[in-house]
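Q: What residues go here?
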C-alpha cells in the first residue's frame, strides 16, 4: 500500500501525519509528522507512537460471546450478530423499544457517529442514545448554543491565536494534552499576554512564568466566581466595549447587574486569587481588546471550567466576559472551547446525542424530523423522541434499559462514580461492546465485536476548529475485524430495519451531507472528493461550491436576531462539597503520555514508561499533615469509593487540593455523577475527599 496523508488517532487537535506501510518492520507502518496549520509539523509522544496500537498483542480479532459458564469464547460473526439480534428482539417483546440503548463515542469518525445515531432511531427505534462526549464537551456546547445560537468549538482557526495580545485559558492544560498547540501561544507569551486559570501550576500555567503572563490559581470549583469578578472589575473601571455591546448583544443590562455583588475583595475571599492579580488580569484583557487599541484577545475554556454542576453557567460567564470586551465575531479576537476528543467536534453534530438529529437538528422539531426522515426514507412519525443524557442512561442500565450497545467508549474507566456504573452494566441482560482491544468495559460484556481503527479505515473527523479532515486507510485490518459501518448494516438487516444501511464511508458522508443540509452544522458541500483535493473546509459548507466558513460569526451570530445573547448567571458550590470527613478537593485530569480511559495508550510501551500508573499529587504541607513522603502509598477516599496510589509531592498544587490523572481504572470510582442541569455534564472536576497514609 502507498503512504497516505492522514491525522492522529487521538485528540481533537488532529495533528497531520503521513503513514508509510512497513510490511517487513516490527510495526505495520511508520508515522511521520506533516506540516499543517494546526500542528505545524509537530506531534506529541502519543502521535509518534500511535502505530503501536495497530499491533498490540491483545488486539481483538474475532467476536467473543459469553457462554453459559460465564466465559467469553470466540464466535463467528454470524453467531455473534445473531446473539445480539435475538436479545434485542426478546427485549422489544418484553420491555419495549426503549429498553435497548446505544452509547457512542467522541472518537468515532463522522461517518460512524452519523450511522450510529441513525441505527438507534431507524433500526432500533429507541430514544435511548447518547455518548461519552456528554462527559467532555456538553457544557460548552450548551453555553455556546444559548449565546451564539451555534456550538462550534473554535469559531476561528487556531493559528489566529498567535496574533492576539492576550489569551485567557480557563481549565485547560494544553502543554500536556495538545503540546503542538503551544506554538500558537508563543507570540502571546512573548507579549506577556498568556493568562491561565488552574488550581495547579500545570505545564501550561508554568508558561506564564518569566513575564509570559499571569497564573491565577483559584480554589477548585470557583472559576465562575472568578469570571464574575473579572467582569465586575471591567464594569467598575469602565473597560467594557459599549459600542459592541449595543450593536451585537442582548441582555447586557441584566448581566451587568448580576456582577455587581462580586467586588474584588469578595472574589479574593471565595477564590483565593488575590485582588491585585484579579485587577491585573482584567486590565491585561481590556488592553488587548480592539476597543482599547489592542491587537485582539481570546477567551478559551477547557474541561477544568466545564466539568461542574454549574459548568454551563461557568462557560456562559466566560462568554459574557468575552462579549463585554467585544471579542466574539471579530477578526483577531473571540471566545472558543478547546474540544478534547479526537472527533469531539464532529461526534457531537450528527445524531449521537439524545436530543439530536444530523446537522445539529432537533429531534423535537417537526420540520427537522421531516427533513431527516425524508433523507432516511422513513416516516417522521416512525422516529422516536428525545432520550436521556449519558449519566442518566447509564443509571437506567439494568433497570428499564436491558440491552446496551457501546461503541468507542470505555465507561467502566471513564464514567463518574465508575463502580456504580460497572454494577449497572453488569445488571444488563446483554452488554455489547465494539472495540479494538479488550477494554475494561469489553471484559464485562456479553458480546464483544472487534472493529477497525484509525489507519485501517477511510472516513472523516472534524477538528477542534470545525475543519473537516480526511482519515485515510494505510494498512489492512487483521482478518476477522470489521468496520462498524459494515456490522451496523448487517445488524440493521437482521433486525428488519425498514431501509438498508450504507457501508461505504464516502457514500455515508454524502448521505450525512444531505441529512445535515440546511441545519446549523451544515455539511451539504462536504465530500471525500473535495477533501481529497486538499480543500480546507470548515463547516458550515452549505453547497458543493461553497469554500467553507473558518470564522462563522463575523457578520452575525446564529441567533434569531443575529446578536449574541448574554445570560446572567449565579455562582454555585460543588455538589460534593468539603465537610469534616472529606476536607480536601480532588481534581482529576490528563497526562501528556496517556489518553482518555487509556484503553489504547496504556498498551503502548513508550507511553507506559513515561506514565506507568496513577498517582496522587499533593502539596508538601499537606503531605506532612497526612504523614507521607514522596512515593509513599496514600488512600484517597470519597463518598463513593477509595483508591490507593503513590504520593507525588509538588509545590505546584494548592495545599487544599489533590490531583489524580484519570487514565487508569479506579480513579473515577471517586468522582461524582451529579450533573449540570442544562448540559447533563457530570462534575468530574471536583469532589470532596479524605487523604490518609495507606
Ligand atoms: S497533540 Fe493530539 S492530535 Fe497531536 S499528536 Fe498529540 S494526541 Fe495526536
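A:
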Amino acid at each position: 500500500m502507498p503512504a497516505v496523508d492522514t491525522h492522529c488517532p487521538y485528540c481533537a487537535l488532529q495533528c497531520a501525519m503521513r503513514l508509510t506501510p512497513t510490511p517487513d518492520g516490527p510495526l505495520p507502518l511508520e508515522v511521520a509528522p506533516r506540516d499543517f496549520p494546526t500542528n505545524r509539523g509537530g506531534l506529541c509522544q502519543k502521535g509518534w507512537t500511535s502505530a503501536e496500537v495497530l499491533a498490540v498483542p491483545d488486539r481483538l480479532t474475532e467476536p467473543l460471546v459469553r457462554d453459559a459458564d460465564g466465559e467469553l469464547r470466540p464466535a463467528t460473526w454470524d453467531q455473534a450478530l445473531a446473539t445480539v439480534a435475538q436479545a434485542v428482539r426478546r427485549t422489544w417483546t418484553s420491555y419495549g423499544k426503549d429498553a435497548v440503548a446505544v452509547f457512542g463515542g467522541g472518537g468515532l469518525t463522522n461517518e460512524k457517529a452519523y450511522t450510529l445515531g441513525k441505527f438507534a432511531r431507524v433500526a432500533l427505534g429507541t430514544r435511548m442514545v447518547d455518548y461519552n462526549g456528554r462527559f467532555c464537551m456538553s457544557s460548552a456546547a450548551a453555553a455556546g448554543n444559548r449565546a451564539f445560537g451555534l456550538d462550534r468549538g473554535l469559531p476561528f482557526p487556531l493559528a489566529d491565536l498567535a496574533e492576539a495580545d492576550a489569551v485567557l485559558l480557563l481549565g485547560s492544560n494544553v502543554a500536556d494534552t495538545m503540546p503542538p498547540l503551544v506554538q500558537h501561544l508563543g507570540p502571546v507569551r512573548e507579549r506577556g499576554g498568556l493568562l491561565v486559570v488552574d488550581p495547579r501550576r500545570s505545564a501550561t500555567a508554568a508558561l506564564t512564568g518569566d513575564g509570559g503572563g499571569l497564573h491565577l490559581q483559584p480554589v477548585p470549583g470557583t472559576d465562575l466566581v472568578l469570571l464574575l469578578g473579572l467582569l465586575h472589575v471591567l464594569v467598575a473601571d469602565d473597560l467594557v466595549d459599549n459600542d459592541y455591546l449595543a450593536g451585537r448583544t442582548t441582555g447586557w443590562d441584566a448581566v451587568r447587574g448580576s456582577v455587581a455583588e462580586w467586588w474584588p475583595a469578595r472574589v479574593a475571599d471565595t477564590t483565593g486569587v488575590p485582588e491585585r492579580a484579579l485587577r491585573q488580569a482584567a486590565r491585561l484583557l481590556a488592553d488587548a481588546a480592539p476597543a482599547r487599541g489592542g491587537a485582539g484577545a481570546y477567551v478559551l475554556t477547557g474541561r477544568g471550567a466545564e466539568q461542574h454542576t454549574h459548568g454551563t453557567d461557568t462557560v456562559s460567564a466566560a462568554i459574557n466576559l468575552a462579549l463585554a470586551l467585544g471579542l466574539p465575531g471579530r477578526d483577531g479576537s473571540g471566545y472558543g472551547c478547546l474540544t478534547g476528543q479526537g472527533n469531539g467536534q464532529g461526534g457531537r453534530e450528527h445524531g449521537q446525542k439524545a436530543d439530536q438529529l444530523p446537522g445539529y437538528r432537533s429531534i423535537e422539531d417537526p420540520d427537522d424530523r421531516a427533513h431527516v426522515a425524508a433523507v432516511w426514507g422513513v416516516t417522521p412519525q416512525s422516529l422516536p423522541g428525545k432520550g436521556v443524557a449519558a449519566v442518566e442512561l447509564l443509571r437506567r442500565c439494568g433497570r428499564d434499559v436491558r440491552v446496551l450497545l457501546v461503541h468507542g467508549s470505555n465507561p467502566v474507566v471513564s464514567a463518574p462514580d465508575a463502580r456504580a456504573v460497572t454494577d449497572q452494566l453488569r445488571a444488563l441482560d446483554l452488554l455489547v461492546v465494539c472495540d479494538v482491544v479488550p477494554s475494561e468495559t469489553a471484559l464485562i460484556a456479553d458480546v464483544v465485536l472487534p472493529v477497525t481503527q484509525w489507519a485501517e479505515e477511510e472516513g472523516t473527523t472534524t477538528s477542534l476548529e470545525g475543519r473537516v479532515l480526511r482519515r485515510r486507510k494505510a494498512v489492512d485490518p487483521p482478518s476477522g475485524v470489521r468496520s462498524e459501518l459494515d456490522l451496523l448494516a448487517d445488524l440493521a438487516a437482521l433486525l428488519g430495519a425498514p431501509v438498508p444501511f450504507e457501508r461505504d464511508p464516502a457514500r455515508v458522508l454524502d448521505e450525512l451531507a444531505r441529512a445535515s443540509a440546511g441545519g446549523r452544522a451544515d455539511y451539504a458541500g462536504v465530500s471525500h472528493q473535495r477533501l481529497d483535493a486538499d480543500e480546507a473546509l470548515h463547516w458550515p459548507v452549505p453547497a458543493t461550491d461553497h469554500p467553507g466558513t473558518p470564522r462563522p460569526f463575523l457578520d452575525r451570530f446564529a441567533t434569531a436576531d443575529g446578536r449574541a445573547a448574554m445570560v446572567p448567571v449565579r455562582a454555585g458550590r460543588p455538589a460534593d462539597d468539603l465537610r469534616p470527613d472529606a476536607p480536601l478537593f480532588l481534581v482529576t485530569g490528563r497526562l501528556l503520555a496517556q489518553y482518555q480511559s487509556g484503553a489504547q495508550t496504556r498498551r503502548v510501551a513508550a507511553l507506559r514508561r513515561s506514565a506507568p500508573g496513577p498517582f496522587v499529587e499533593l502539596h508538601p504541607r499537606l503531605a506532612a499533615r497526612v504523614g507521607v513522603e514522596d512515593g509513599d502509598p496514600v488512600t484517597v477516599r470519597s463518598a463513593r469509593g477509595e483508591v490507593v496510589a503513590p504520593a507525588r509531592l509538588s509545590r505546584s498544587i494548592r495545599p487544599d487540593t489533590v490531583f489524580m490523572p484519570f487514565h487508569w481504572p479506579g480513579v473515577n470510582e471517586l468522582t461524582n455523577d451529579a450533573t449540570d442541569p442544562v448540559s447533563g455534564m457530570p462534575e468530574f472536576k471536583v469532589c470532596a475527599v479524605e487523604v490518609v497514609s495507606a
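A: Context that may help when evaluating the design: The chain has a mean pLDDT of 97. Residues 154-338 form a domain with the Dimethylsulfoxide Reductase; domain 2 fold (CATH 3.40.228.10).
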